[in-house]
Design a protein that fits this description.
The complex is a heterodimer of chains A (107) and B (120). Chain A has 107 residues and is mainly beta. Chain A is 0% helix and 50% strand. With 120 residues, chain B is mostly beta strands. Chain B contains no helices and 11 strands. In chain B, the strands form 2 sheets. In chain B, strands 2, 4, 5, 6, 9, 10 and 11 form a 7-stranded mixed β-sheet that branches. In chain B, strand 9 and strand 10 form a beta hairpin. Chain B starts with a strand and ends with a strand. The chains are: A mainly beta (107), B mainly beta (120). Chains A and B meet through strand 5, strand 9 and strand 10 of A and strand 5 and strand 10 of B.
Chain lengths: 107, 120
Amino acid sequence: DIQMTQSPHSLSASLGETVSIECLASEGISNYLAWYQQKPGKSPQLLIYYASSLQDGVPSRFSGSGSGTQYSLKISNMQPEDEGVYYCQQGYKYPFTFGSGTKLEIK
Amino acid sequence: EVQLVESGGGLVQPGRSLKLSCAASGFTFSNYYMAWVRQAPKKGLEWVATISTSGSRTYYPDSVKGRFTISRDNAKSSLYLQMNSLKSEDTATYYCARLGLRIRGYFDYWGQGVMVTVSS
């Protein structure tokens, strides 16, 4: 199985700040990498797919990059509504696997 | 508007069975692969099963293979998850999710989730 190592486990950011979350796959996943945001008590929402494609309706302050085994999610101009837990997920090979999550809070 | 509404959760004893349902609307259900993803309390996400558009292909992780069965009824725009021989570690919120149309490696819409508790 492909292991997804996500970092950091948690972070806090000030309003307007730019933050990055990293995801490392145990083998190459050819950009089949998605990012999700989950708020307390809610279902996950897709932010980015195929490493860098922005899902419809997602603010442009969210962006994804990477290739091979290393990927990252960048949130520019941090907003209060960006608080939540972020997960990466590889869709290159079954079983699909998720990172352990990054909890993002407002400082 | 895409909607996925799960039902069928509840409290069940270890070793017993439970069947979850997901009613889909707002899109052509038969065109999409569908999946179940679960989340144990205070834990991360775990993919549980995927089914092809016709239902002819199914995929499972080792943790549920042989115990869970995913199925679909395209005429009813419904997805199902039959869970047998349930264990305490199956306790989780179960989400119905739609896979992307062209790139089927991600989940673009999720239901609100249904809770399954396995306990005596």
